[in-house]
Design brief:
InterPro entries: AAA+_ATPase, CHLI-like, Mg_chelat-rel, Mg_chelat-rel_C, Mg_chelatse_chII-like_cat_dom, P-loop_NTPase, Ribosomal_Su5_D2-typ_SF, Ribsml_uS5_D2-typ_fold_subgr. This protein is 37% helix and 16% strand. The chain has helices at 37-40, 42-53, 79-89, 119-128, 158-165, 174-177, 198-210, 224-230, 240-252, 273-277, 287-290, 306-310, 313-318, 361-368, 373-377, 400-418, 429-435, 440-453, 457-473, 481-489, 497-501, and strands spanning 2-9, 12-23, 28-32, 61-67, 101-103, 106-107, 113-114, 133-137, 152-155, 214-217, 264-265, 278-279, 284-285, 295-298, 320-324, 329-333, 337-342, 381-384. The strands form six sheets. A five-stranded parallel sheet has the order 11-14-17-10-18. Strands 1-2-4-3 form a four-stranded mixed sheet.
Length: 504
């Protein structure tokens, strides 16, 4: 007998055919097909669940083959498919199982079906693989409103699965569960609560509109963390597809996400490279993947080890991360906006107007060199912040909702220009220049400033991307001279010659 299930290799799903055959010989149950420990232990779980159902298999020899045999099976999600195959072999289930039905779920000893990590990406993979129906355990954390295009049958026990296959009414149907909606997003952060920092707010608006990376440099208490934590409030809401991707990654990592807002990850600077990038014996997503479609905030960025920061090169460039281990090689998406914050020197007060810096030039240089040149090249906007004088009058403060509307309008212009949901910060440079070419005068201006400031080709590309986003926010059809000037200003820290000599 053959029953289908879904295996996962990272986010990629593949069809697993569970074959069950009864053979003469000593009573036993043997599982083959490169099972790991969790799959080998399924034998005892399935035997106990079938005994609770009223099917005793202790006096026969059964061989269970998980095909394809060359891929290592690493999840207890095949329990339900094994039990259904055995029930067919024993004649307890006479109805044929169509090949377009998949079974997912782990069995407890009393026959209850339980969800496991990675259930949501397995369901999405089943749809891509052509399955028309999927039997899965009920999980209240599922985003039911996003699964309307997938025919899911939610079951709680092995007995319910048999009843459904025999044509009886489904206990949980998708229509019954569509009343579930996302809880309203609650946040106490808003840009209208941040006094001053008008230039920084505009820079973050540009970053949100074009998905550009930002590094903020300033003394302690000047507002770097506050700006970064408020930044997600101006990001557009996630689409259904993006929300399913994010929830799938959180499930694979064994974490939960309660709302549909873009993720915001804030790892401590003592985090290891495995925690940041992902890994383990069975590779799981790291912080860069959990920040997918959202923000990765690295506070005290210079305190991260240089080796850990350099591991960000691949995800920042390709928007994914590949993890290779002896057992397997997996690739996880890592499409995020990087927001970094750091002090200008070890004591934190270099360039401050109110506090005296006690660091030597050598100490400051060594502190800045903790962030390598390639990482600086991959950052679009460099911001120099100072403490705000609260006694002075400030401009009328805008709400995050108002800024988000402008960001959404700029994003929509980019989607229309490129014919897909891709932003200026991620679109291939050839496509960007074909759609928005620079004038000859603008090219000469950029080359002049690149030679003056020793900007690499990557930095010049970043400036063009920034200029295009600034023009989109200004509702300009082409890249204007003003947009190009503003983009170049975002790459120059306003702290004097000494700052530039230190690699910034």
């Amino acid at each position: 007998m053959k029953v289908c299930s879904i295996g996962l290799r990272g986010m990629e799903g593949y069809r697993v055919q569970v074959e069950v055959k009864e053979l003469p010989g000593m009573p036993s149950v043997v599982i083959v097909g490169l099972p790991d420990t969790s799959v080998k232990e399924a034998k005892e779980r399935v035997i106990a669940a079938l005994h609770a159902f009223g099917c005793d298999i202790m006096n026969q020899k059964l061989v269970i083959h998980l095909s394809p045999p060359e891929r290592k099976k690493q999840s207890p999600t095949f329990d339900l498919a094994m039990a259904i195959g055995i029930l067919q072999v024993k004649g307890k289930l006479e109805q044929p199982i169509p090949s377009h039905i998949a079974f997912l779920g782990s069995l407890s000893l009393d026959g209850t079906i339980q969800p496991v990590d990675g259930m949501l990406p397995a369901i999405l993979a089943a749809k891509k693989l052509g399955f028309q129906q999927v039997y899965v355990p009920y999980d209240p954390t599922f985003p039911f409103q996003y699964l309307q295009h997938i025919d899911c049958v939610f079951v709680q026990t092995l007995d319910q699965v048999v009843q459904c296959l025999q044509g009886q009414q489904v206990l949980f149907s998708m229509n019954h569960l569509l009343s579930a909606v996302d809880p309203p997003q609650k946040t106490h952060r808003d840009f209208e609560h941040i006094i001053g920092h008008e230039d920084a707010k505009y820079a973050l608006e540009v970053a949100a509109a074009g998905e550009h990376n930002v590094l903020m440099i300033g003394p302690p208490g000047c507002g770097k963390s506050l700006l970064a934590e408020t930044f997600p409030t101006i990001l557009p809401r996630l689409s259904h597809e993006a929300q399913l991707e994010v929830l799938s990654l959180y499930q694979l990592a064994g974490e939960t996400k309660k709302d549909s807002s873009p993720p915001f990850r804030h790892p401590h600077h003592s985090a290891s490279s495995v925690a940041l990038i992902g890994g383990g014996t069975q590779p799981k997503p790291g912080e860069v993947s959990l920040a997918h479609r959202g923000v990765l905030f690295l506070d005290e960025m210079a305190e991260f080890t240089k080796k850990t920061l350099d591991m960000l090169r691949q995800p920042l460039e390709t928007c994914n991360v590949t993890i290779s281990r002896v057992s397997s090689t997996v690739t996880y998406p890592a499409h995020f906006i990087l927001i970094g914050a750091m002090n200008p020197c070890p004591c934190g007060y270099f360039g401050s107007k109110k506090r005296y810096c006690i660091c030597s030039p050598k100490q400051i240089h060594a502190y800045r060199q903790r962030i390598s040149g390639p990482i600086y090249d991959r950052i679009d906007i460099l911001l120099s912040l100072q403490a705000v004088d609260l006694t002075q009058k400030h401009q009328q403060l805008e709400r995050s909702e108002t800024i988000r509307r402008r960001v959404e309008a700029a994003r929509f212009k980019q989607y229309e220009r490129y014919g897909e949901e891709i932003t200026n910060g991620r679109v291939p440079i050839g496509v960007l220049l074909a759609k928005s070419p620079l004038t000859k005068r603008q090219q000469q201006l950029l080359q002049h400033w690149a030679a003056t400031n020793d900007w690499s080709n990557r930095v010049q590309t970043k400036i063009i991307r920034l200029a295009r986003t600034i023009a989109d926010l200004a509702e300009a059809e082409d890249i204007t001279d003003e947009a190009l000037w503003k983009a170049m200003a975002f790459r120059r820290i306003k702290e004097g010659r000494q700052e530039r000599n230190m690699g910034c």
